[in-house]
Every structure is written in C-alpha cells, then in structure tokens.
Amino acid sequence: MTTETRSLDSFNCRRELQANGKTYAYFDLKEAEKNGLDGVSGLPFSLKVLLENLLRHEDGRSVTKDDIQAMADWAKERRSSHEIAFRPARVLMQDFTGVPAVVDLAAMRDAMSALGGDPEKINPLAPVDLVIDHSVMVDYFGTPTSFKRNVEREYERNGERYTFLKWGQDAFDNFRVVPPGTGICHQVNLEYLGRTVWTKDVSENGETVSYAFPDTLVGTDSHTTMINGLSVLGWGVGGIEAEAAMLGQPISMVIPEVIGFKLTGKLNEGVTATDLVLTVTQMLRQKGVVGKFVEFYGPGLGNLSLEDQATISNMAPEYGATCGFFPVDNDTLNYLKATGRGDDVIALVEAYAKAQGMFRTADTPDPAFTDALELDLGDVVPSLAGPKRPQDRVAMTDASTDFARVMESEFNRADDIASRYDVKGENYDLGHGDIVIAAITSCTNTSNPNVLIAAGLLARNAIEKGLEVKPWVKTSLAPGSQVVTDYLERAGLQDDLDKLGFDLVGYGCTTCIGNSGPLPEHISEAIRDNDIVACSVLSGNRNFEGRINPDVKANYLASPPLVVAYALAGSMQIDLAKDPLGEDKTGKPVYLKDIWPQSKEIAELVRSTVTDQMFRERYGDVFKGDETWQTIAVTGGLTYNWDTSSTYVQHPPFFENMAKEPKAVNDVENARVMGLFLDSITTDHISPAGAIKKDSPAGQYLVEHGVDVVDFNSYGSRRGNHEVMMRGTFANIRIKNQMVEGVEGGYTIHYPSGEQMAIYDAAMRYQDEGVPLVVFAGKEYGTGSSRDWAAKGTRLLGVRAVIAQSFERIHRSNLVGMGVLPLQFQDGQGWQELGLKGDETVNIKGLDALEPRATVTAEIAFADGRVESVPLICRIDTLDELDYYRNGGILHYVLRNLARAA
Q: Where is the Aconitase/3-isopropylmalate dehydratase large subunit alpha/beta/alpha domain (predicted)?
C-alpha cells in the first residue's frame, strides 16, 4: 500500500464503483465529460485509457488541467501536438533487456552512495515482473531429451546472470522474477499477469482506499504490445525508459494520432490468424503508422478470438505502430475466465469497462479516429513474409516464384538457382532455397491454440500419409507457456509433432531472436563452402537479415501449420499450392490440401482440450522455478558485490565521476564520421545480437578472459557486461557501412590514416585521439528490438550525434536517454545528396542552448576544403527529454533528483 496526497480533481469526477460486493474509487470519464470535457465519449478506447491516467494523476505539476483539456481538444481535431506525462501501472521485462536494467539499478545504488545519498531510494516504485525467456538456445533438437538438455545448457551458460537476478529479486522491493523454463514474457503477461483493470490500495487521510483503473504497462521488449489484445494499453520502451518508469518518472509523450483499422467479414476456410497479421502488417506499413496508435474496430472483431487479437497486437512493432489496441468486449471476459482469472477480476473488468464507456458491443458507435483503413477478413489468403522484413508479405501461391525473384534481386544468384551441392557424409545434396530451419517459435503464434492445434493436426495427417521431414531441416517447437504442452499432449498431438522432429526444445524466445543454435556441422559446411542461399521458415515476428542464424540468408515468417508443411517440402522453390510435398505409402503424390485440417476440427479440439484448470495449475506457483533455480545461492545486501572476473555482469561506467550538478553540454567539434548507412538500419544491425564470433572484438575479449569458444553464449546473454556489448555494437554480419565499399559487417575507415578496421577498434582509437564521432543514416533508423544496447553501445563508442532522415520512435528516445543527440535532415535531404564519403569532419554548435525540435546547423568540412552548412531538426522532442540530454541521460537525471532529495 502506498500513501498519496491528492488535492486536484478539476473535473469533479472521482466516484465509487461496486463490483462483486467490493467498493472501488475511480475517475469517471462520463462525469468528466459532463463537467467540461466535451466530446471525450467519442475518443478512441485507447485514448480513454490515457485520459483516465491524466485525471487520476492530476497534481498541477506533471499533470495539469490544461493537459487533461488537451484530450478533449483531440476529440475535436483528432490530432494534437500537446505533450503529456503518462504513468504506467507496471513494468514488464525479459532477461536480455532486464539484466542490464537491473545492472543499472545496482550501479545507481553505488552512485547514490558515492553522492552521499541513501542507496535504498533506488528501488522500483511501480511493480516490475521480469520473465527469464530469452536465454534458452536450440542446441539440441529432434529428440525426447532436447528440452532437458537445452535447459541444462542454459543454466551452465547463464549461472552468473541468474545469480545476479536472484540477488535483485531479494534486494529490490516491488520486483519479481519468473524463472527459466516457464514461458515467454508476453504470453505469461497475456495468460497470467495482465488483468485489464488494475487495482491499488492507497492510504488517504488515514483510510485505505482501493482504486480501480485500466491496466497499463511499458516493457523492455518491443512486443509488449501483445497485451493490447487483452485491452491492456502497453508498448515497448528501452531499458533506460523502463528504469525511469520504475523509479517514478512519467513517460513524456505527445498525444498520439490514432489510426482506426476497421475489420469486416470473417476468415475463409484454411486461413489462419498468422495470415491475417501478415496482411495487416503489410497494409499498415504501407499506410505509415510510426509513432501512432492503431485501434481495431468494426463487426469483424466478433469473428476473431482474443488469441487472434493478441496475435495482431503482438506485431505492432512490425507494422510500426506504438500499439495495436482492441477494446474490452465479451471475448475479453471469456478469455479472463478461460485462463483461470478469479471472479473478482472478471466482475471488476465488466463493471469498470461498462461504467467508463469502454465496453464494446455490436451497437457501439465507431470512435473518432485521425484516419482509418479497412480490411474484409474474407480477402485474407495464406501468406508468408520474407526474405528479410516482416512487412514483405507474399501469398503462399506466389512464394516459390517470389523466391526466384529474390534470388536475382537480393542475391544475384539467378543463374545457378537450380544448382545442388553434395553434403559431406550424407546421402542427400543441398541447394538454394532449401529450408534448413523450421521453427514453431515465439509469442506471436504460440499464444494461439488454434494455430498450434492446426500444426499438430497437419503433422498427424502427414504421418498417416507416410510423409517425413527432409533430413536437412532443423526442426523445433518452443511454446510460449507450459499450458501449450498440456493441451497438445491432451489432444495427443505432441506425439505427432515429435514424430516429425518438432519435439519440445524449450519455453522461450528461441529462433525468433537468433537463439536457433548451430546447424549440424555438415550442413553448415556445405552452405559456407558453396555460398548456398539457405532458408528458414519460422512462426515468429522477426526475420531481419543476420538475425536468425549466420548460415541462413533468407528467412520467412509463416503460421505454425505452414512451418510444418515447409519442413515436409524442404524448399522454398516448391509451390505448396501446386507441387506435392512427397508421396504416400503407395507412391501417390500428396499435396498440402490433402493434409490441411478443417477449421471445424480445429475448433472442436481446442474446445475439448484447453481448460481453465491448466492455467490455474501452471501459474499457481509461477515464481518458484525448478529445482536448479531453487538451488542458486545468493548473498543479500542493498548493494551488489561485483565480481570483477565475471564475463556476464560488470559494473557499467555510466556514472563514473558524476557530480551532483550537470555541466553545460559541450558542442560537437571536429567530429569524424563513424558510419554512413542507408535506409532501414535496424537495432538488430546496431545492437549486439546472436552468436559471438571468435575473430570479432567481443570474441577476442572473451578469449583473453579465459572463455572457451564453446562457452561464448550469445550477445543477448552478456548484456550485463558493457565490455562485451560495446565491442559488438555495429558489428552485425549483415550491416553495410557505405564508407567501406563492398564489405559487409562492422567495419569502417579510420581517418586521417585511411585504415580499414573494426568499428570498435576505430572508435577506441578515436577516443585515444580525443576525437568525437557522428553517424549518418537514411530513413527509419533504429527499427526493431534489442534497443537498449543500440543506444548504450552508441554512447560508449563515443558517438555524440546520429544524423538521419527519420528515426524509429523508441530508438530516438533511447538515444536521448543516453545523452546522444538525434538530428534529422530537412525536406528529404540526406547524406547521399550531400555527397558524403566518410572522410569529412563535422561541427555542431549551440548545444548548450538547445530547444525541443529546434533547427540546428551542422558544418561539414569536406576533404577538398569545401565547408557546407546543413540545417537539421533537433529530435529532442520534449522539455523532459531536453532535461535528460543536459544531464547526460535519463538515469543521471533521476539519480541527481533523488540525491538532491536525500
């Protein structure tokens, strides 16, 4: 229980609500409308959540009456430039991004002590749940012992990290850890943590008052948006933003535009929710919704399950929106009941949503949107997306011909598309387009019983026909929760999946985040020796180049049943609509249509096998963990006892020599160019992710510290060690720095020497020379996940400013949060138009007098002596962000404020 002092209720709307015999205080939107907020009943449901948040937190300082009035103004104009302060109810983390966040909190406690303050003040004020789901790798597959062996390997690799997290669970209040082997954070959030309506006991005037309000959150994973399918407003933020939210800082944001997405009709037979979400992703990318809310409405919602909605919400980062929101309706209540939530929760959700005008029915008037688009569900067809972007949807009927196009346009290999190459020691060969990874993975689809049951039924039908998975395919099943195993086993379908090699490999984000594990050596060797364009098909949400596996160049997203089908086919060159997958026991060709399950059969099996008891049992003691987790020993204490020999967790340098008051920001003078990049450079290109190569700067560091190559683990698992992470920043094997012609990977040219070297090595050399750095880029700089280290690593490499044509929302914010200046070209100008080669120097002056969105000038001195002044937009968007930048970062700002209050 917390104590709060409230003095403002400008719109006189605090009321009481009864639900299941209990009384709750709440801020009534209908009363607020009567008392001056004209038109807010017509707001999109997602903005009603923001409006309630402002009403409840009005204090005259961070939230004013004018801020609240701006929401009513939005209802008239359907857009706004007004900045508001949003306070989420809670924070969600996964371990890749969560570990560095906890590392930073531990370092902040040390810094607080150094500043003479109380380290216990560094403590989460909002509830924090961290789910360990990103560390399991698919080392073992296709056997009944795969899961057990992968978990054992996970603990071997990550013992130091897990010990640190257990310390954090004991040391910090309001901080819980869901142990390894439980599930994916988004699916655990959907099935257990999320409530749709949150409650909080507050002490007011000596009495305890229970407040009810919409469940909201931010998460350190971009796919936090999945929970919007349960009518919980939330989105992904960087670890630094999440830490600030934990420490009581509001998230500054401009009231967003809201794009309505109207759904009509219903899906046809044989079409899955995955096909729908790939279609939605393509449409919204073409529409352009970066930085905007998307809200779904229309009669088609009545023909989608809540799991279908969550599938669509999950992929909001792929279609570029801040979130993809679905309002509360009867399906929300049914899902809460079906997943074992208590009667009090369900009764409160229904009563609250109806009282607030947040409950959707078939008769609900359409909200007022900034803009809208529409899709008839009957127009959706079976689809994939690839070979390297989620929005590049291709109809299944066109997939084989599109791969032929890709071989020419992407890989310049059209001439030998039919070539086959021997695989050493095997009785088969390998060719372009062959599928070497088929993975049912990720929160996107494993939260949806319909597509998993469909995959199991397709496997059963294939086995009955005598079909087998091609021998070069690495198969895996990594569900988002243990409940999936329960219903697959109850339906008898896990045995069928096992027979095709889709044995359980772990409960976590595996292939989708690059934890696909190594391919068998003979496969990997054949691919490397012959430069084969090998493929993966996965049921995930990310297929960026270089992400899935270093041996795989073309990656396709697809539904779980299509993953199984392509594993049977073995190649993207096979047309699943026309070509046989194989032959039955009599030699007769078998086509996909012969084994595809019927929707009625899928629905009946879902109804008979998925029960609320499964959810209650699996989540009854979710924080306990297995025997291995329970035996991890930690020592208590307010501050962490750092192990200087650890290669997983190290004290970060962000707060070294920090004073209580910030110094004036220095101008950027005589900076060198670290990189020239084209459009769509993702945070996967920037941030260290996937496997660590022995000959990379990070690999060399680990070898020097006595780590065997077999124990390198992934970059993600070592996010708590800045020495590893800064060496891996801009080191993706597929990144292309245009300064280094014809070379892929993290390389640059050091000037004035003209030497080509690894970006990390050049950055360290520049630091020794006292030379600051800048980065130039094109459009959509910083899309994707893995975000915190994309900004942290950039700062540690000595980059003072990133100059791009446009930024992804979170990465731009994170750059500011780390004290790196984001600057944007004006009027479509870019570094290519300027004729930059990378040997220029750059001056940016007047930084001590910056204002949000102000125009600043970069003076670029060319090698031939020319100097050109280029106007740029300062993408520090708010006054709060300006404070963060002037302090050297958001955590420095928070720490100084807490130290002053001590």
A: 76-570
